[in-house]
Design goal:
transducer, mainly alpha, two-stranded antiparallel ribbon, 2 strands, lipid degradation, 8 helices, Recoverin, domain 1, single chain
Amino acid sequence: KMFAQSKDDKKRVESILQSLGFTTGKNDTINPQAFDFETFFNFYVHLTKRAEVERVFNEIVNSKKVMTAHQFVDFLNKTQRDPRLNEILHPYADTTRAKDLIALYEPNKYNAGRGQLSFEGFLRYLLSEDNNIMAATKFDLSHDMDQSLAHYFINSSHNTYLTGHQITGKSSAEMYRQCLLAGCR
């Protein structure tokens, strides 16, 4: 029912799930224990081909398959770093920091041992907590979130209630319910 509006999306998701070893029959289910973070990450990577991230990676490594620690330092300092940051409070990345990040996010142990970052490791870094767009302190709740729903304002776009395709899909208040169950207030 989820893919009623887009048969191509359904085929794509089924194909990816099958490539990961899951059955995709109408009544099949996926055991949550079998769908661990690594499996989810692989599913996500296959589902969302990130051509723009591949382009950035390839510009850095040229024709190579891996990024060196020095190239990663340049990326961290020249591309990722906010130039408005204070150098004392937020020092520039160095090779040691780059190698630590590579060791953390590079799934290929051989590459990690050589201080090299593959595209998958690069993507893992970009999607990690070490690369959050917001400061970690902003994730801490500073307001009372125990009141009834009527005590809060809900800020949402007109797309929040859509359950499928933006133009031809159906709408439902269920999407708001899902947001609230996920902890949004």
